[in-house]
Design goal:
Length: 719
C-alpha cells in the first residue's frame, strides 16, 4: 500500500504545477496545495521575518511567465509524463531522508530497474548505466575508465604515467564543437592529446569519418610511442544526422585495443522494430550515450551512458559508481517516466518522430549563403511546431536543420506541421535563389558607378549594400564624413518612399560599415540596372541640393552686400537726376506737382547658385523653362511602365510569381522588425526646390523724397 504521506505530497505537487502552468494565479488554490506540499516536502517553518507561501509562489510565477502579453515567452505545456519527471526530483529529496537500510534497498531497486529497461529498449545487452546531468559527463567518465584500464598504476602514480606514453583521443571532425576541448580540460590533458579525424573527402559521405585515414593516424601515433586511447564516433552527427561506419570502426578499435564510444540522435531508433545495420552496430560498442529527455519529451531527466566493463574496481575508480544516495536517485525521474509511458508509449513517440522526416532522422537543408539565417528565423516563426533551427557546418556553412527526434516529442509536431514547413520552403527558396543570382549583377552594376561604393556584408541576406560617396575633395575628413552621412540618410528615406516591393534598410544591427543602404530580397523580374541608376540619380540630386544649402549662407551674405551697393548707387543716381530741391519735403512736393518725374521700376533677381543680382527681365521666361524641365524630369526614369507595374520590375518576367502579398514581404518581415532606420530630425530645414530667389527693389523716383533712414528698407527686408 502506498505511503499516504508520499501520495498526498505527489497530489499537492501535481496540483501546484498545474496552477503555475496555467499562468492564472489563484490565491486560495495556491495556499491549499502549495502550503501543504511545502510543509510535507521541505519541513520548513516560515518565521515572521520570512515570506509567506503565497508571496513566494507569486514570485515563482512571475519569474516563469513574465509578461503575460508576450506569449512567445510563456513556458510550453508539460504533459502528464512531464509531471512524472518533475515529481521524480521532489521525491528524490523526500526519499533521501528515509532510514538508511530502506534507502539502500529503494535506490538499488530504482537503479537496477531503470538500467535493465534501458538496456532492453536500446538492445544493449549486459550493460551498466551511468546517469548524469551534463550529456558530456558520461564520455568524460569513459575516458577515465579507459585511462585506468590502460595505465594500471594510474590510481597511485597519477599523471606521471601519462608522460611516458602519451594518450591520444580521436574524434570525428563532424562531432559537436568543443567536445574534445572539454574532455582535455576535464581530464587535465593537453590539447595535443586530441586528434581530429577528417571526414571523407573523395568517397562516401562528407559527414562520415574517414576510416582509412584514421587507421593511418593510429599507426603513426603508435610508432611515435603514443597510446591510442579512445575513439568518439557518431550515430547521427549534430549537424546533418549522418552515422559513421561503426562496424569498421569497431574492428579498428579491437585491432588497436581502443575504447569505442558512440553518441548521436540516431541511437533513439534502436527501440524500433526495424533499424538500419549502421545504427545497430552501436550496440556492440564499448559505450553509448543516450538522451531520452528530448527524444521522449521529458523535462529535467538525466542523460544515460550505457557501457560494458568487467572490473567493478576500475569502474569505481573512474567515478561510475557512488555510495551517495542523491547520486543514485538521479535515475528516479526517468524511472517514473518510463513506467508511465510503457514500452508502447516509448515506441510510439520515437516511431512518430522518425516518420516525420526521411532518413537520416536529422536533416539539414543547405543554402549557399547566409540567407539561411533569415530563412530559419522565418520558418521558426511561421511554423513554430516544426522545431527547425539554424546550424553551422564546417563544409556547407549555414544550414537550416529539421530534427524531429530532438523536438517532436516536446513540441507535439504532427504531419500537417511538416506539410506547412515544406510549403513555406517552396515559397521562400525561389526568392533566395533569385537573390543569390542577382547579387553578383548588383555588385557589378554598383562598381561601375564612380559615386557608389559596394558594401560586402555576409550577414545580410539580401542583394547587398551600397554607400553614396561625396564627390567633393576640398573638404576635410570630418566634414566629408558628415556630408556622406547626410546624403545616405536622405537617400535611404527617399528610397523607402518609392512605390516598390524592394526593402531598403541601414543594414544589420551589428554591421561594421556605417552610412550604408542595404537592399533586401529580389525576385525574378528585378531590373538591377534600373535600381542602381535610380540610386545614383536620387543621390546626385540630394548631393547637389546639399551643396546649395551648405553654400547658401555665404551666397546670401555676398548678395546682401551687392544689393546694398546697388541700392546705394541707385539712390545716388536718383539724387543726381532729380536734383537736391526735390529731396526737400515741402519744396519737392511742389516741384513734383508742377513738373512730375516719370519713374521706372527696376527689378533684380538674386541667383543663389551664382550669388549675384541679375535683371528681372528674363525671370518669367526662365521660370517657365524651369517648370517645363521639372515636368520632364519628374518620372526619374525613361523606362516605359505598364499599368500596375512597380519600380525596378521588368514587364513579363516572372509576373505570375510576384505580387503585393508575395513571399518576398513575408521573408523579409523578420529583418524589417530588427533593422532600425535612423529618422531625420524634424527640425532640420528642407532643401529648397528652386535655385533662384527673386528680389525686386523699388528704384524709381517717387513723388516725395524718401525720409532719412528708410532708403535701406529693401535691404532690411532682404536681411
Amino acid at each position: 500500500m502506498m505511503d499516504p504521506t508520499l501520495a498526498e505530497m505527489g497530489n499537492h505537487l501535481s496540483d501546484a504545477m498545474k496552477i503555475l502552468e496555467s499562468g492564472k494565479f489563484q490565491r486560495i488554490l495556491a495556499i491549499k496545495h502549495l502550503k501543504a506540499f511545502l510543509i510535507l516536502f521541505l519541513f520548513l517553518y516560515f518565521s515572521d521575518s520570512g515570506q509567506d507561501v503565497v508571496s513566494i509562489l507569486q514570485l515563482v510565477q512571475n519569474l516563469m511567465h513574465g509578461d503575460d502579453d508576450q506569449q512567445g515567452h510563456r513556458m510550453q505545456y508539460v504533459g502528464e509524463q512531464g509531471h512524472m519527471a518533475l515529481l521524480g526530483h521532489s521525491l528524490a529529496a523526500y526519499i533521501s531522508v528515509l532510514e538508511r537500510e530502506r534507502l539502500r534497498k529503494l535506490t538499488t531497486r530504482i537503479l537496477s530497474d531503470t538500467t535493465l529497461w534501458l538496456c532492453r529498449l536500446f538492445r544493449y545487452e549486459n550493460g551498466s548505466a551511468y546517469y548524469h546531468e551534463d550529456d558530456r559527463e558520461g564520455l568524460v567518465k569513459m575516458c577515465r575508465l579507459a585511462i585506468n584500464t590502460h595505465y594500471e598504476d594510474y590510481a597511485t602514480e597519477g599523471f606521471t604515467l601519462l608522460s611516458s606514453k602519451h594518450p591520444v583521443i580521436y574524434q570525428s571532425a563532424a562531432c559537436r564543437p568543443g567536445l574534445g576541448q572539454h574532455l582535455c580540460s576535464q581530464l587535465g590533458l593537453p590539447l595535443s592529446s586530441l586528434c581530429i579525424v577528417p571526414c571523407n573527402t573523395m568517397f562516401g559521405s562528407l559527414h562520415q569519418m574517414d576510416v582509412a585515414l584514421l587507421d593511418k593516424l593510429i599507426r603513426d601515433d603508435r610508432e611515435s610511442g603514443k597510446l591510442p586511447l579512445l575513439l568518439i564516433a557518431n550515430a547521427g552527427t549534430p549537424g546533418a544526422g549522418h552515422t559513421d561506419k561503426l562496424s569498421r570502426l569497431k574492428e579498428l578499435c579491437v585491432q588497436y585495443n581502443m575504447w569505442l564510444h558512440v553518441e548521436g540522435v540516431n541511437l533513439a531508433t534502436l527501440v524500433l522494430g526495424q533499424v538500419s545495420s549502421t545504427v545497430t552496430a552501436a550496440t556492440k560498442c564499448d559505450s553509448i550515450t543516450l538522451t531520452p529527455g528530448p527524444w521522449l519529451g521529458l523535462p529535467a531527466v538525466p542523460a544515460v551512458t550505457l557501457y560494458r566493463h568487467e572490473d567493478p574496481a576500475l569502474s569505481l575508480a573512474a567515478g561510475l559508481t557512488s555510495s551517495q544516495p542523491v547520486e543514485k536517485l538521479r535515475a528516479l525521474p526517468l524511472w517514473l517516466s518510463l513506467q508511465y509511458l510503457g514500452h508502447d508509449g516509448i515506441l510510439q513517440r520515437i516511431k512518430h518522430a522518425s516518420q516525420l522526416t526521411p532518413s537520416p532522422p536529422s536533416v539539414a537543408r543547405k543554402f549557399p549563403f547566409l540567407g539561411c539565417m533569415c530563412l530559419g528565423e522565418q520558418l521558426a516563426q511561421q511554423v513554430p511546431l516544426s522545431g527547425v533551427d539554424v546550424v553551422e557546418l564546417e563544409d556547407e556553412g549555414t544550414c537550416v536543420r529539421f530534427s524531429p527526434l530532438m523536438t517532436a516529442a516536446a513540441l507535439g509536431t504532427q504531419e500537417n506541421d511538416v506539410a506547412a514547413l515544406v510549403e513555406k520552403l517552396g515559397e521562400m527558396i525561389p526568392v533566395l535563389s533569385c537573390t543569390l543570382r542577382f547579387r553578383q549583377d548588383f555588385k557589378d552594376e554598383v562598381l561601375q558607378q564612380a559615386s557608389l561604393s559596394y558594401i560586402e556584408d555576409q550577414s545580410w541576406p539580401g542583394l547587398g549594400g551600397v554607400r553614396y560617396e561625396a564627390r567633393t575633395t576640398d573638404l576635410d575628413e570630418d566634414k566629408r564624413q558628415y556630408r556622406v552621412e547626410r546624403i545616405n540618410s536622405d537617400l535611404l528615406k527617399k528610397l523607402m518612399e518609392l512605390d516598390t516591393d524592394l526593402y531598403f534598410s541601414d543594414g544589420p544591427e551589428f554591421c561594421e560599415e556605417k552610412n550604408c543602404i542595404f537592399i533586401g530580397m529580389a525576385t525574378e523580374d528585378l531590373d538591377v540596372a534600373e535600381l542602381v541608376e535610380t540610386i545614383v540619380s536620387i543621390g546626385r540630386d540630394i548631393e547637389e541640393s546639399g551643396k546649395l544649402f551648405e553654400n547658401m549662407t555665404e551666397v546670401v551674405r555676398r548678395g546682401i552686400q551687392e544689393a546694398e551697393q546697388q541700392l546705394q548707387k541707385a539712390n545716388e543716381e536718383k539724387l543726381m537726376e532729380e536734383g537736391v530741391l526735390r529731396q526737400i519735403p515741402l519744396v519737392g512736393s511742389v516741384l513734383n506737382w508742377f513738373s512730375p518725374v516719370q519713374a521706372s521700376v527696376k527689378g533684380r533677381t538674386f541667383n543663389l547658385a551664382e550669388g549675384c543680382l541679375d535683371s528681372t527681365e528674363p525671370v518669367y521666361s526662365v521660370k517657365a523653362q524651369m517648370i517645363k524641365e521639372a515636368s520632364l524630369d519628374s518620372p526619374k526614369s525613361v523606362t516605359k511602365r505598364f499599368p500596375g507595374q512597380k519600380l525596378f520590375r521588368r514587364h513579363g518576367a516572372g509576373s505570375d510569381s510576384v505580387s503585393d502579398t508575395s513571399s518576398v514581404s513575408q521573408l523579409e518581415e523578420s529583418f524589417r522588425e530588427t533593422a532600425h532606420v535612423q529618422a531625420i530630425d524634424a527640425e532640420e530645414a528642407e532643401v529648397p526646390q528652386e535655385h533662384h530667389v527673386h528680389i525686386v527693389a523699388e528704384m524709381a523716383l517717387s513723388d516725395q523724397r524718401v525720409p532719412e533712414g528708410q532708403e535701406t528698407e529693401s535691404v532690411d527686408t532682404l536681411r
